[in-house]
Amino acid sequence: MAAVILPLWTWNVSALDASRADGALFSFLVVLLAAFAVFAKPRQLPTALPGFWLWCGALLCALFPLVLASQDVAGWAPLVGGLADRAPLLSAWLLAALVASSLPREASAAWLKPLVYAVAAAGAFALVQACGLNLPGVVPFGRLRPAYPFQGLSQATEVLVPCLLLAVALLPSLRQRPVLWLLVCAPMALEAGFLSSNAGRLALLAGVALGLWRQRDRRVGWIAIVALFVCGELLRPLLNAGGGDGPVTEVPRGMEVRWEIDKASAAKFAATPGGLGLGQFENDYPSWRPEAEAMAGREALREAGRLRQPKTPHNEILLAILESGWLGAALLLAMLLRLLRARQVHQSGPHLTDGPWLALGILALVRSPFSDNPAALGMAALLLAHDFRGYGEGRAASSLGQSGSGIGAKLRAVAPVATLALGVVAVVPAWPQWRGEQLSAKAFAGEEFDAQAMNDAVEARSWDSRCWVLLSSYYLAANHYDEARLCLRQALMVAPYDLSALTAAIKIEFEAPDGDETLLRGLIGRGESFAPYEPSIQDARVRWLTHYRDEYRSRAVQLVKQGIPGAADLWAAMNLAEACLAQVEGDDAQVKRSLMQAASYLPGNKAVIERAARLESHDQRLLEELCLRVYPNWPQLQNN
Fold it and tell me: Fewer C-beta neighbours within 10 Å, C or N terminus of the chain?
């Protein structure tokens, strides 16, 4: 239970990425459990769960693109980073195998009660935070309300709803133990309703419907949690708990964004047979991000002053098949079917875990409970262990008298050792992952930024572009431009589409005394190639064009005052820059006016410019080609 409960209650609110820190801790705890199990009972290895070799095959398929990428300039960073991000998935399989092997088939589900109680306590604490009471003072940032100690609103829903369904099916009924039932279920139901998650609503209703069909003797409890959930929904507007990370209210836009990501991910899967590679979605997605999804919430992002870059596609199925490719997807499907068939054969009678599994399945279609929420992942591992408790004993009994020389028998014999090996593989990158999170949190813990701690963080986790970007910001603030450039070069090497790194690199070339304009233009063009509608990239182009527009105007005015000929070229260039600025700002009428003004100063190119001005719409590429045709060295006007 510690592998699930401790990450939930001990994560650092100052961590750069709470799920990565929790995932590393989760992997450590599972390996400690494995070491204890092996040394306590040397002859008892973990149970080889059904579909294990199919899982290993899919894993190899997801690792293969990273091995190929290691030949690139980034070296082994993508492989180590991908393993570090997905290490909890390997550890969860080992956890399920260890617990299943230690439980006899006849064991009741009572051993899951501590998990239910711990999550109920977390739900009660989160409800207190939602009410605006921070008595222990453990939440330094208001943005964490109303989810603490959960990582966020979605992560809280992914744990509370399945655990609530498990509690109603597992604990004594409301009629039998009303006080215990209310103490455990009420906080979880109220907090889950307070979080205002559409996925949570659907998952809860589906689980309750299944419970009413399977456990009719507990129908009062199933109806009660729906009533409490609705009370939580009503509590939210009464408390007016919005905040920076408040309940989701833009439901239509959220659904639109998810739909665009789903379509783009499906198209990318169809076009990428080999897959993206393990843990590479976050780094690769900006290069094929759909325009409609990037435009959604554009003004809100500009007002917030921050970059929005999805960490996952908010769909575990799409994430798994995207990263593992066509062959990996086929193996994962075969593994899932193997698990479902073995579960049906192995476990007789009503399944207490059916409701939680249904809820997790629904949440997995619109969120990331397994790849971005170690607490939910650990809970799923324990549910799997419950379903396959004593599975090893059944396999041993059914294989008596059969030949042990076949390939299948040999694979079954090796599977327990391979399962342990997965746990060891998971914990190796988990150490630098955890250390990097702790050091980055330490860098911001004091009143002043601890540069040494962040330097240690990038040494421990050199594949993490965020640490490089944060370190560069320190050097940039101190006007150490060369050091900042080096940090950002490393960040863009391991994450070529990191908008934060790209934006910081552009800022350096604007501000540094030795700023390289050729590099600046290349960086802006690089950003526009995959994120043309990001406010930071657009602001960079506007700033660059504004500089030249003002320079052209100033020089033209000086020539006119001095009576020197040649101002016409400068007035024309100024109007072309005005047209480019208007295009970035979406003012097509101003684009046409500026182009017509520029045409009046350039008789030799008048027909070309006027023809472009008469177009119904103007894109950036067209205007750039027009400027280069008029001034081949644009934005420089020399040697024309």
Answer: C
pLDDT(305) > 50: no
Burial tier of 563 (Cβ tally within 10 Å: 0-12, 13-18, 19+): exposed
Proportion of the chain in helix, strand, coil states, percent, rounded to 5: 75, 0, 25
Q: Report the length, in residues, of the chain.
A: 640
Give the pLDDT confidence of 257-278 residue by residue, as tens digits: 788 888 999 999 999 999 999 9
The per-residue pLDDT for range 551-585, each reduced to its tens digit, is 999 999 998 888 888 888 899 999 999 999 998 88
Cβ contact 573:631 at 8 Å: yes
119 close to 7: Cβ distance less than 8 angstroms: no
Helices 77-102 and 391-398 sit at what angle, rounded to 10 degrees? 80
Q: What span, in angstroms and rounded, lies between the C-alpha atoms of 329 and 62?
A: 10
And the tokens for 264?
A: 């783009």
Residue type at 208 in one-letter notation: V
User: pLDDT band at 501, cuts 50/70/90?
Assistant: very high
Give which of 449, 442, 436, 547 is closest to 494, Cα–Cα. 436
Give the residue from 467, 486, 484 showing the smallest Cα distance to 475: 484
76 pLDDT more than 80: no
Cα distance between residue 418 and residue 435, in whole Å? 27
Instruction: Find out whether 278 and 323 touch, Cβ atoms under 8 Å.
Output: yes
CA angle 591, 597, 603 (to 5 degrees): 125
Within 8 A by CB and 6+ apart from 152, the residues are: 18, 144, 245
Cα 481 to Cα 396, 442, 630, distances in angstroms:
65, 24, 35
Query: Which burial class, exposed, middle or buried, applies to 387 when counting CB atoms under 10 A from its CB (0-12, 13-18, 19+)?
Result: buried
Measured N-to-C along each axis, helices 316-346 and 354-366 cross at an angle, to the nearest 10 degrees, of 160
Q: From 90, 105, 109, 104, select the one nearest 34 (Cα to Cα).
A: 90
Whole-number Å distance between alpha carbons of 282 and 309: 8
Alpha carbon distance 323, 269 (integer Å): 9
Q: How far apart are CA 61 and CA 55, in angstroms?
A: 10
Q: For residues 64 and 149, give the distance between their C-alpha atoms in angstroms, rounded to a whole number.
A: 37
Instruction: Name the token pair of 441.
Output: 């949190």
**Rounded to 5 degrees, what angle do the CA atoms 37, 39, 40 make?**
65
Q: Can you say how many angstroms the Cα of residue 449 is from the centroid of all Cα atoms in its chain?
A: 26
Phi-psi region of 614 (alpha: psi -120 to 50; beta: other; left: phi over 0): alpha
Identity (one letter) of the amino acid at 267? A
User: Is residue 126 within 8 Å of residue 147, measured between CB atoms?
Assistant: yes
Cα 563 to chain centroid, rounded: 61
Structure tokens at 343: 């579960």
Cα dist. 252→258, 259, 262, 296, 432 in Å? 10, 11, 15, 11, 40
